[in-house]
Write a structure and sequence with these properties.
four-stranded antiparallel beta sheet; 9 helices; seven-stranded mixed beta sheet; 21 strands
Length: about 475
């Protein structure tokens, strides 16, 4: 096994702009054989749990980090010996006979790490035969190498004939161009002084020898002082993953957007009756029908009537961005913490379609399979605190959104109905909004519209 045959698979950015991920589980161990596309581990980012496939065929040489370790994006996490041979960039081409040049051999382009559900563009690279040094030039190079060995010095890389252009293959030249690396400043390590991809990366990356060392080989320093708390009376849980990201987002939101929260208590007896009727409707067979479905539809109708509520604040451009679509976020409590996946283009869905999307969203979140893309680009959010028996709350805005609706518990309460006190199904709604772009009038209109629809669901037909 040579170093040239070992491929280091680095932690990819499995979301947009994420900087780290925690290794939840390894599916392979050193000595196992892996194939291109095989899932080797599961990692948890600040947004979701994601399975990572390996882009190589070969044998696992080392796992650099144990389960439970948080690793920065770009750090090598597993080493794979690619069939025990030299890496594509390090393989030496055999010179073709001078009297009868061989047809250039077509080689597949080097595979890059990819995410689950994504692929790389298929392409092929045709290699050109390397120009051979003239006989007298080769003789001088051999003589110089022998003389250096006699003098006790390692032979220097062979000089390049002609215009002194550094030896590098087209993919390596493109990589150097993309990274802004001058190949004349790169120290080659490949055969015959060829610059490899690793040489280019080494020229731009700061030295980080600890990345290539297996975690088991790194000595762990003893704690400087004994634990200062009673483990029988306290439990300390590391802040990481979804909970860490949620905390940072909520702090950023609370101290960036000036929050205003308004409340309304509404009789939803007719809405609850409609829920029961829809459960018997053939069009909703097999679909999840509950009060949240009609509350979501009521909010979408209110947004259609008051489109300015569906906006965001662009601080850099000093602009209010009004969205002509609604990606409706639904706050979901999961074993890994609170996440807010959203239903894309919820405004364009019929009631049965919305019910289907809600069911899929909830099921996926409970299974811990929500993808990072499902939690991006939300515009407005609903959080149903009523499922915990809570009357209402003052929800904090999801970053980048202008409003969030909290739904309280639906309870049987005494209520004045048609001039008489009767037991009615009642709930309290709370709407928090960003006061930079939503004033009290607009926020009140949206909340009043939602309440009016839930009190008289027939308005879904007349207002939609």
């Amino acid at each position: 096994m040579t170093n040239a045959s070992v491929r280091e698979f680095k932690m990819p950015d499995v979301g947009e702009g994420l900087t780290e991920a925690e290794i939840l589980k390894w599916y392979v161990q050193p000595g196992d054989t892996v194939t291109d596309g095989q899932v080797v581990c599961e990692v948890e980012t600040a947004k979701a749990a994601v399975e990572l496939p390996i882009p190589y065929d070969g044998v696992v040489r080392a796992l650099h980090f144990p389960e439970g370790t948080t690793v920065d994006v770009g750090t090598s996490i597993i080493a794979v010996d690619v069939a025990g041979g030299a890496a594509p960039e390090a393989q030496e081409e055999a010179p073709a006979p001078a009297e009868e040049p061989a047809e250039p051999e077509e080689q597949p382009a080097a595979r890059q790490p990819v995410l689950v559900g994504y692929g790389v563009a298929t392409s092929s690279t045709r290699r050109r035969p390397r120009k051979q040094a003239a006989p007298d030039t080769a003789a001088r190079q051999a003589a110089a190498a022998v003389q250096q060995e006699l003098n006790g010095h390692a032979p220097a890389p062979a000089p390049v004939a002609g215009d002194a252009r550094p030896l590098a293959k087209p993919p390596v030249r493109k990589l150097a161009k993309d990274l802004g690396v001058d190949l004349t400043t790169v120290t080659p390590t490949g055969p015959d002084g060829i610059i490899t991809r690793e040489d280019v990366h080494a020229a731009v990356a700061p030295p980080a020898p600890q990345e290539a060392v297996p975690a088991a080989a790194v000595p762990v320093a003893a704690p400087a002082a004994p634990v200062s708390y009673d483990t029988a009376r306290e439990t300390r849980v590391p802040i990481k993953g979804v909970r860490k990201a949620t905390a940072a987002a909520m702090v950023g939101s609370a101290f960036t957007a000036p929050h205003v929260t308004e409340f309304v208590t509404v009789d939803v007896t007719r809405t609850m009756k409609l829920v029961e009727e829809l459960k018997q409707d053939k069009e909703f067979t097999g679909l999840r029908v509950n009060p949240l479905l009609l509350i979501a539809k009521a909010l979408l109708v209110a947004i259609r009537r008051n489109p300015e509520i569906n906006a965001s604040w662009d601080e850099a451009a000093q602009e209010i961005v009004v969205k002509h679509y609604v990606n409706l976020g639904i706050a979901a409590a999961t074993p890994r913490g609170l996440i807010v996946p959203n239903i894309k283009d919820a405004h364009a869905k019929t009631l049965p379609q919305l019910a289907e999307s809600l069911g899929e969203l909830v099921s996926t979140a409970r299974e811990g399979k929500t993808s990072p893309s499902a939690m991006q680009a939300g515009t407005v959010t609903i959080t149903n605190v009523g499922v915990f028996g809570v009357d209402t709350g003052t929800p904090i805005l999801n970053p980048g959104e202008s409003a969030i609706l909290a739904v309280g518990a639906i309870k049987l309460q005494p209520w004045v109905h048609k001039g008489k006190v009767k037991p009615r199904q009642v709930t309290t709604l709370a709407l928090s909004f960003d006061h930079r772009l939503v004033d009290g009038e607009l926020g009140s209109k949206v909340l009043a519209d939602v309440a009016a629809i839930l009190e008289q669901p027939k308005r879904l037909i007349s207002w939609a």
